[in-house]
Amino acid sequence: MSAEELEKEVPKVVIFAGKSAPGYYTAKLIIKLINSVSAVINEDPDTAAYLKLLFLENYNVSLAEVMIPASDISQHISTAGTEASGTSNMKFVLNGGLIIGTVDGANIEIAEEVGEDNIWLFGTLAEDVDDVRHEQMYRPATLDPQLGEVIDSIQRGDFGDVAIFEPLIGTLTKGHDYYIIGKDFPSYLETLDKINTAFVDKHATDAGFDPRIGAKEAAAIHAAAVTRDYGLHPRMDYRTVSGVNGPLVILDDVKFPRFAEIVELTLPDGTKRSGQ
């Protein structure tokens, strides 16, 4: 890419977080590949200001408390029908983040609640997955050219010893691509492009804001997001109460309150009062 093309790119910090079961060999290879790719990307002076890639090991609640509120986009891209996009996507949405995901698991219910304009869904539908797998079993599909470039880069040794990653590549090229990554890859990239466009368009509507920020400004924004204490300075200010008519009563240990709920209180003298 030319310098002019790079300047038009939306700067990103991409974070993977997770862990592998001791015997899950393929998962360990994926984690190894992520770290090997990040070592190359993060040391490239031409792209360092536009893309950072991190893997947070031993993902747990303490890491989630810092990472989830800081996210803009979370990816929940399990193959449709596997029901692997569960509760974590809910946590991201509740903290003000947006989702790119397959039509799987809780992504479906979230889309119903937030509206399709507030979530990016892509990929094969669950009812079509078995048909795609059957077709690929007997008539292997032509590999998507962009996914082919990724595989070629790995096989050239751009990210280390080729032999280490050969079993992982084999799941796509020899193993009939059970998770239909090749089928969903083009629509995944198209959806990422839509997200980039939406991000720029949103900020372009802000008065006096130029979406084509420079590399130094982008780095400063990302640094501030990573170091921000979201406990003291949350992403959003909640202003649901604008005024109080009558006495304000504070109650402790109330379970599952609902917004604007009408409740009945019994006062110490036995009098019953209702309020919102």
Provide the helix percentage: 40-55%
Q: Structural class of the helices, strands and pairings? A: alpha/beta
Separation of termini? 58 Å
The overall pLDDT, averaged over residues, is: 82
- The strands making up the biggest β-sheet line up spatially as 3-4-5
Largest sheet: 3 strands, parallel
Features:
276 residues; alpha/beta; 3-stranded parallel sheet; two-stranded parallel sheet; 10 helices; 44% helix; elongated
Structure summarized in a few sentences:
The chain is α/β, with parallel strands linked by helices. Helices cover 44% and strands 12% of the residues. It has ten helices and seven strands.
Overview of the molecule:
This protein is an alpha/beta fold. 44% of the residues lie in helices and 12% in strands. It has helices spanning 3-7, 25-41, 61-70, 88-94, 106-114, 126-138, 145-155, 162-173, 181-204, 215-227; strands at residues 12-18, 51-57, 73-76, 98-102, 120-122, 263-266, 272-275. The strands form 3 sheets. The protein has a 3-stranded parallel beta sheet. It has a two-stranded parallel sheet with strand order 1-2. β3, α4 (88-94) and β4 (98-102) form a beta-alpha-beta unit. The termini are far apart.
